[in-house]
Specification:
about 35% helix, 15 helices, 3 domains, alpha+beta, transmembrane, Transferase(Phosphotransferase), domain 1, 5-stranded antiparallel sheet, about 500 residues, membrane
Length: about 500
Amino acid sequence: MQPLPPNAPSRIGDYTLLAALGRGAMGSVYLARSRGGRPIAVKVARAELADNPPFRERFRREVEMARAVGGFWTATVVDADPDAERPWMATEYIPGPSLQQVVQDHGPLPERAVRRLAGGLAEALVAIHGAGLIHRDLKPSNVLLADDGPRVIDFGIARALEHSALTEAGIVFGTPGYLSPEQVIGQQITTQSDVFALGSVLVYAATGGGPFGEGATSALVYRVVHQEPDLSRVPPGLVPLIVPCLVREPANRPTPARLLEAIGPPSNDPSWLPERVRTMVEQRHTELGRLPAKPPTRVMVDDPPPRTPTLVAPTPAPTPSAPTPPAAPVRITPEPKDVRPTGVRFKTSRVVGSSWAGANALAAVVTASIADPAAGAPGAVRLAAFVAFLAFAVAAIRLLVGVARSPLTLDVGPDGITLSNGTENRRLPWYAIARVKVDAHHARPWLVVWLVPAAKTPDTLGRGSFTRHKGGLRVYPISHERYRKRRDRDVVELRSALAWYGSAAYDPR
């Protein structure tokens, strides 16, 4: 809970703002009080969302559905205005910390608390799904821990945010590590996607970490799709409850109702939280009681008029500025030798190529000895051995030529794509890239980019980099020298990195 920022309004609708609670994917969240004195959490849309008419329509529809959500374990929607200058939604305020904050401050929850948490979350999903909603972003920060049980927040927002101005601008909706496999690869999302997220949240509550570890986003989403969850630190009594939730095939996951049956009735102990967490909840109640009925008077020129519940502060008078110089053409220049790696790194290998070259050279020696007339082999055998010798010798030579070339390193990060051969670097910033894709042609996949018209084509760094291809440029050979399984894995990881860091230019086809 923080003081209101200087540009925050004093009221939204019929609610007096008291403090700032945070910011999320939708926008700002404030603690407010109703006319009758009830504490309320008010979520206000970002300005860029407010200017998107399709978002307003989706927001209106999802708010109406969220109002229909009942049950004990959700934050009730009490009011909303989709037609406001910036749309907002008011929900019941839960004076409790988030699961994420509790685990970060005090470590994992005991088994009995995780079981009670599972029951509350499963019952919340029954109510949410019963209203025709899918949460889509269930995660530790969206679970609040109250003294009588958990509460799920931010349902009704997920669907409205999809395909909004934010996501179209490159912000991926959802939280890596808690997204289901079908969400990662773009398949149809069902209520069972929330069950997968529920299993991941329970692992976090029981161990302090997600089931797919930590690291770069591309690594997390790759593990979700291709690797098994790590449940080695989960208490044995919780494993049979969590494992079915994390099954890759959605149809094989239990429904929330079936999970409630598996969990069984809750214990009779009303103190479900550890003492240190109960203290945090009590502190929230104390803070709430100390808040004034209305915020202190703020003397600021940008306060909105009291009669207008708007979120847009008056625009300050413009100040003189120097003329803006004409934009220079986009140029891609060599970078310094030492470039700090960002995002995800890929590298061609000399070791693997050398190993294969050695294996082919050995095979060529063996077949040459068989083809030698002095070996006394039949003519047909010697002919076949000679043909095999030629094939192995050509393969060994090609591999040795590849090994002799300088290895390439590719970094994909928030600033763009950087290619290095150990002595020189070429950086392609995202603003210079019109389109980028992985051209997965059989055993020789390439990273291919199409530059904006003003961009200058970089000089090659060897291994065929920056050569013309289908109107674009081949940039990086993706694991040509490696075996198929490793090559396919690198292709998947590179596509994930491009989708995350350069989604505005990434072409998944």
